[in-house]
Write a structure and sequence with these properties.
Helix content: under 10%
CATH architecture: Sandwich
Largest sheet: 7 strands, mixed
Number of domains: 1
């Protein structure tokens, strides 16, 4: 059986600051993981130094009865910023990331916070 991590927001990708969201996560691994973590994170891309931060994190532990396959719902409130931005030199990108101890790769769900601002090209 191959490892599988999933994030589901019913296809929703656009959010505004302060908006409530229900995130469904699911996993299937060969053996029960020691932990599973869902993080809402942002990062910059482009020229210069890359910045990144976690705005929300929820972690499940083995002592909470994690099994090799399962699903959970997580309620979160979208943070005030930084807002998603796409310019010539820099971009701010948001994503939900689900990781599990021992998993080969995380599940990543890109999303947008706020109205997507773009640099005007004159």
């Amino acid at each position: 059986m191959s490892e599988q991590l999933q994030i589901d927001l019913e296809g929703q990708v656009n959010f505004v600051p302060g908006q409530a969201a229900t995130v469904a996560v699911a996993w299937e691994t060969p053996s029960p993981p020691e932990w599973i973590e869902l993080a809402l994170e942002w990062r910059t891309r482009g020229r210069g130094t890359t910045d990144a931060a976690v705005a929300f994190r929820h972690r499940w532990h083995a002592d909470e009865g994690l099994e090799s396959a399962g699903a959970q719902l997580v309620e979160l409130t979208m943070p005030p910023g930084p807002l998603t931005y796409s310019g010539r030199l820099v971009a701010v990108q948001w994503a939900l990331r689900l990781t599990a101890q021992g998993a080969d790769a995380p599940a990543v769900y890109p999303l947008r916070l706020g109205v997507v601002a773009t640099e005007a090209h004159a």
